[in-house]
Amino acid sequence: MTQPDARIVDLFAGTAVASWKQNLERLDAIFAAVSDDDLQKEVAPRKNRLFYLLGHLVAVHDRMLPLLRLGARLHPELDEPFIIKADRTAPDTVTPAALRAAWTEVNTALTTAIEGLPSAAWLERHEAVSAEDFAKEPLRNRLAVLLSRSAHVQFHTGQIRLVAKQA
Amino acid sequence: MTQPDARIVDLFAGTAVASWKQNLERLDAIFAAVSDDDLQKEVAPRKNRLFYLLGHLVAVHDRMLPLLRLGARLHPELDEPFIIKADRTAPDTVTPAALRAAWTEVNTALTTAIEGLPSAAWLERHEAVSAEDFAKEPLRNRLAVLLSRSAHVQFHTGQIRLVAKQA
To answer: Which residue of A has its CA nearest to B6?
Structure first.
């Protein structure tokens, strides 16, 4: 691969990163406006509580650190209650305050690392694809993970907005 | 701007287009598996019906054709019932069959045009920004619209999935 024009590559990466940040900031503002009591609301009858979705999103974003090869996880203990187990299948072991702190901590670490990644590095493989498979499937890159997780943020934001106002 | 490396630009654009198509195909499969009767279901009590969200998504995607400067709209008549008016504020004037046909027609036209756009053209301005403003804010490009509307698809997919199974 010859050296690409730096500006065009920066614009592609910059547009994708701006979209990620915008989606995340909107959801962050929504959660910030929800009281701890209201985190117990379900997005629809017998569906996930806001509390569970908050923990779920923290855990999924925490997993993005190694998946994007940006660093080690900060809160692997959240997988069990918020990814492996369904909502309300076990007592809550995390307080709302601790969960909110983890949400901010993980998103800050992740977005800082995302912003520091050189633009062309978005086209490098993500951690879950082998070098051999990646040679055949070059779209399995870090950018695909960012877009997929951005989609995941929006998927749950749509649900959360059913019971929480736009901030 | 010097000529960029074609492959790296294709990979950036290709990853974003693949993400758009994947999100849209998943939602298309979900709608295809919902019966016309079940389109009357609300995603949550007193929230939008699936029927309304289907029409809303057709109208928003139809607007993407001029917004991305890819062509004229196909169904501007859907704005009134599905963007301007809220759900159930007027009798339905479109049948489920007509709405499903418009959904397929619009998405096919849009995705064909999206796939035909040269990679570097994603960094050109979208229709809603003036050339003057775009010179100052180069992230207001076609790619930003694609990512924003991809986010919109996911926002409503999260809601639709509360009452419709993954196909």
So the answer is: A4
| Nearest CA-CA distance, residue B120 and chain A, Å | 8
Chain B neighbors of A123, CB-CB under 8 A: 8, 11-12, 15
Residue-wise pLDDT for B54-106, tens only, equals 999 999 999 999 999 999 999 999 999 999 999 999 999 999 999 999 999 99
ipTM field: 0.95
**Chain position carrying tokens 């730096």:** A6
The DSSP line for B95-141 is: -HHHHHHHHHHHHHHHHHHHHHS-GGGGGSBPTTS-HHHHHH-TTSB
Mutation for A interface: B147, B150, B160, most A CBs within 10 A: B147
Chain B nearest-CA residue for A20:
B147
Tokens 């029927």 sit on residue:
B51
| pTM of the complete model beyond 0.90 | yes
Q: Count of A–B CB contacts within 8 Å? A: 124
pLDDT in tens, B117-166: 999 999 999 999 999 999 999 999 999 999 999 999 999 999 999 999 87
Of the candidates B94, B67, B66, the residue with the CA atom closest to the CA atom of residue B80: B94
Helices (H), A33-162: 50-67, 79, 96-116, 131-136, 142-160
> Closest-CA residue in chain A for B45?
A44
